[in-house]
TrEMBL record:
Keyword Repeat: no
Segment forming the signal sequence: 1-22
Keywords: Signal
Organism: Brachyspira catarrhinii
Protein name per UniProt: Esterase family protein
Amino acid sequence: MNNIKITSTLLLFIFISSIAFARGSVEEKTMYSQTLGREIKYKVYLPKDYDKGENFNVFFLLHGLYGNEKDWTDPQQGSASVIFDELIYETEAIEPMVVIMPDGGNTWYIDSKEKIQTAYEKDLFPFVFTNYKVSKEREKVIIGGLSMGGMGSLNFFLRNPEIFGRVILLSPAVYDKLTDEFLEVSPVTQKDMFNSYWTNNLENYKEKIYTNKLKSEIYIVIGDDDNLVNSEGKEDFQERAVSIYRELKNLGNNVELRIVNGGHIWKVWRDGLRQGLIATDKNSKIRNGFSTVE
């Protein structure tokens, strides 16, 4: 009889523990892009109650140069699923969300030899809104990324501000002309980069936000020791981040800029991901701990 009681107690403890420590799941997927004529790989983080819920927040999280769809969930790099579990379930700092982490190659997320920008806008984004239980309300749709993914996120936002109400830019590598090193590994031309520089999307952005009275929540972070250099060899990406901040702030958005201790490294991006998700979430319980840089 005592053995039965002990076994029952143990099973109950295991059952309660499994509920208490239940977390989101990560899956590897592909979707077919009509634009590219091939599959796009992506990883997806699903909150633990995904099957029971609906209208979840959705976050398109982009990787950097030399990366792929696995970077953000790699425990040695992004550890993103741990961060999402922590913010959603442990601290309850943000609302549950679906996170899409697609493979963008070394394309800088712009149209060149492959029309990757068009493929995301015409194929990937609509696919996610159709096939996952996510909301289309702007304040629940987030785009963000690190380095090259920061540039891609900024351009997608400026081109589609009616879709994305929240933006997280982590050490954005906003190049108008690539260094020789990056040009060698990227399937883009210097003309493509110049035409895709973020300022070239501003007129489209201004027209849409003024017409539709749009306002967004934006978080930008970069390390004080970030060693990215422009095509002339100058380390000026902190200045470029400030320029982005000022332009978007002057256009009426809620923008926060952080220049933090660190370089072009994962610690800056992991911490920035945490802080950016809280800072751009109007419903966050601890959002008031952040203040806009003036």
